[in-house]
Amino acid sequence: MLSAILVMSGLAVFLGAALGFAAVRFKVQEDPIVEQIDAILPQTQCGQCGFPGCKPYAQAIANGDADINQCPPGGEDGIHKLAELLGVEFRPLNAEHGEPKPKSVAVIDENICIGCTLCIQACPVDAILGAAKQMHTVIAQECTGCELCVAPCPVDCISMVPIAEDVATWKWKYPVVKLKVA
After folding, report:
1. Which residue positions form the known binding site?
2. At a CB cut-off of 8 Å and minimum separation 6, what does 117 contact?
3. Which one is the CATH code of 32-97: 3.90.1200.10, 1.10.287.600, 1.10.10.10, 1.10.15.40?
4. Residue 85, exposed/middle/buried by CB under 10 A (0-12, 13-18, 19+)?
């Protein structure tokens, strides 16, 4: 019994060391410019740019396969930041991919919802809670306003409500530093 435990422990240590070595030896280095581009993008994962999410779009921009002006949620401000980062000329938003809209959040009319789960399947950020044949609701803080949940809803119970701009929802240019008052 004791020898079996020792053999299993030794095997676990050996395999752990082998996996640790492999992780260090075969680590794939990502292009830092992709990370910088992705940080500028709005992370709505809406697909309006023609890519399945912000990270693939960032990769395409870095590879030269996509232009910097394909992201309607990022708007003109995002295009300016991307142009500055990449050292390219600013181009206005390509209308082929949509137009900038005010930030909004999905709201489900719970009296109409039939619990079909199509909206849950369509949500790229898992901002919708619910179960089959049960009422669904949106976690407003997680919703990116991508509108991907609206089209699959068979009973049209989802509407996009613009978020009022106030102190709580304003995007500050600089991080807020909280000072301790002694």
Report:
1. 46, 49, 54, 71, 113, 116, 119, 123, 143, 146, 149, 153
2. 130, 131, 132, 136
3. 1.10.15.40
4. middle
**Cα dist from 25 to 16, 31, 137, whole Å:** 14, 18, 45
Which CATH architecture fits 102-165? 2-Layer Sandwich (3.30)
What does each of the 182 residues of the chain score in pLDDT, given as a tens digit?
889 999 999 999 999 999 999 888 888 777 789 999 999 999 888 889 999 999 999 999 999 999 999 999 888 889 999 999 999 999 999 989 888 888 889 999 989 999 999 999 999 999 999 999 998 999 998 998 999 999 999 999 999 999 877 776 565 555 545 555 55
User: What residue numbers does the annotated binding site for [4Fe-4S] cluster cover?
Assistant: 46, 49, 54, 71, 113, 116, 119, 123, 143, 146, 149, 153
Q: Which amino acid is at 114?
A: I
